[in-house]
Amino acid sequence: MQTTITTPSQRHSLWQRWGWLLWVLIIGIIYFWTINGLKFTGFQESASAVSKSILHGLVHPTWSYVYDGSGEDLVSLILQTLAIAFLGTIVSALISVPFAFWAARGPKEHYFLRSGSGKIVLTLIRTFPEIVLAIMFIKAVGPGSYAGVLAVSVHSVGMLGKLFGEAIENMDRGSEEAITSAGGRSSQVFALATIPTIMPEFLSYTLYRFEIAVRSASILGMVGAGGIGTPMIFAIQTRDWSKVGIILLGIVVMVLLIDSLSEQLRKRLI
Amino acid sequence: MSTPTIPRRSWTQRYHVKGIGWTVLLLVLLVASAQMTGVNVGMFFSNLGQFTNLLVRMSNPAWDYTAVIIQPLLETIQMAILGTTIGAAFAIPFAVLSASNLIHNRWLRGLTRLFLDLVRTLPDLLLAAIFVAIFGIGSTAGVITLAIFSFGMVSKLFYEVIETIDMGPLEALESVGATKITIIWYAVLPQILNQFVSYFLYTLEINVRASTVLGYLGAGGIGVFLQRSLNEFNYNQTAVIILATLVVVLVIDGVSNHLRRVLL
């Protein structure tokens, strides 16, 4: 006996059948606009020669720059970069906690005025470019790594506050309820239930943000905010490619080490 | 009746050795970092006047400057779109090569992933500085910087997506003798396409943010004007640029978030 398999109706609406054409058209227009709008005239004839000398410099780094005891060598400046990232991240983690509680939506909250305004403020902080912050702080405290620390501290609040706030929104409220039902005051609930529950996630996000801060601390020096970026931009401007090579190598090794260290620590936390 | 045994705490637990150790380490690192970076809290507050002065000057934006920066803002978006597209296109083969469920050769996979890890260590502005030196000032350097930057990011996101696919359709095709290319086209691609597009849009969001500062080093877009206004101390123009950037970033984020929600 033959059974017929009923297939779902093949009749589609016009939109279902031809809707993809509209998307193709939109995407096509966007790319047409993009490629027509950009001017690729910036090519220099020296491009290939410069690339060759960069490659040569990367293969023959100035090893003598690694350590010469002057305090202006690679190791000292890498340590300074790490110090900027570390201090900035710790300070911003502390500032982020109140912001996070501001931006986190409570479990029984129906109006989102408080948390909504907090989220908007955090978005504004996040979008403010970090190097502009660095330049502003350089005006206040002069060029150097202090300005870098301040820039990292303020800029990181945007992301850490958001991550912390989401952690608070998604946290397990069981231990809070337990303390409340045993008659605990709200300060006790906070100290004995909220903080211990949320701490591992806060620490994990702080470590993650530290990884990002190491990258940004290594470029903040390009505008004069301390760390390895300053000699890097000088080396690029003076076409000292061997020095660029050794600094690049230093940054790559530093970032790889910090990333794997932080990843190990984060695995043990959660 | 046996007496209940109370779990005993070891010596290290009773005196919180671990916790105290971590706290001391943290404090030592903090003090060392503060000394190394020359942090001086007093100096910040004694110079607060200059800082507030800057904020005051930024707080009345020169609105007529808006007309000047629309074109470079559009250029910034164009740079981000093209850079992300090139980066994502190059990322696809590398993502396939580093996915453990498609490539069983551990050496090939390890080498590809090491290469991708190395690419990801380089900060965007650093790449921009180098490519400005190679290609000269202009948006070409910016596009290439963004392409490499998004290549590192997208390839990792993509291979993590590939590793989560359902292997059933692949095995079905393999058992009827399909070639590798056919398997990828008919079994892998339909499963990952939506997530790929979603991650592409996410990377585009990040690149729009990144591209607004690349011009600071001469890599085209709005950053060029940002640097000019800061160097000429026209902070009211800086304020307009930052506000305009904010609007663009929010609009792109909104569109991209909406599209991603439709896709997934």
UniProtKB/TrEMBL annotation, chain A:
Localisation: Cell envelope; Cell membrane; Membrane
Main location: other
Residue ranges of domain ABC transmembrane type-1 in the record: 78-262
Topology relative to the membrane: Multi-pass membrane protein
Top-level division of the source organism's lineage: Bacteria
One Pfam family from the record: BPD_transp_1
Residue intervals passing through the bilayer: 20-38, 77-104, 212-235, 241-258
Keywords from the named record: Membrane, Transmembrane, Transmembrane helix, Transport
InterPro entries per UniProt: MetI-like, MetI-like_sf, PhnE/PtxC
Xref: NCBIfam families: PhnE (TIGR01097)
Family the entry assigns: Belongs to the binding-protein-dependent transport system permease family.
Protein name from the UniProt record: Phosphonate ABC transporter, permease protein PhnE
Organism field: Levilactobacillus fujinensis
Underlying gene: phnE
UniProtKB/TrEMBL annotation, chain B:
CDD domains the UniProt entry points to: TM_PBP2
Domain spans labelled ABC transmembrane type-1: 73-256
Signal peptide bounds: none
Main location: membrane
Membrane topology field: Multi-pass membrane protein
Transmembrane segments: 80-104, 125-149, 183-201, 213-230, 236-255
Gene3D superfamilies associated with the record: MetI-like
Matches recorded under Pfam families: BPD_transp_1
Locations listed in the record: Cell membrane
Keywords, comma-separated and alphabetical: Cell membrane, Membrane, Transmembrane, Transmembrane helix, Transport
Record-stated family: Belongs to the binding-protein-dependent transport system permease family.
PANTHER family xref list: ABC TRANSPORT SYSTEM PERMEASE PROTEIN P69, PHOSPHONATES TRANSPORT SYSTEM PERMEASE PROTEIN
Record protein name field: Phosphonate ABC transporter, permease protein PhnE
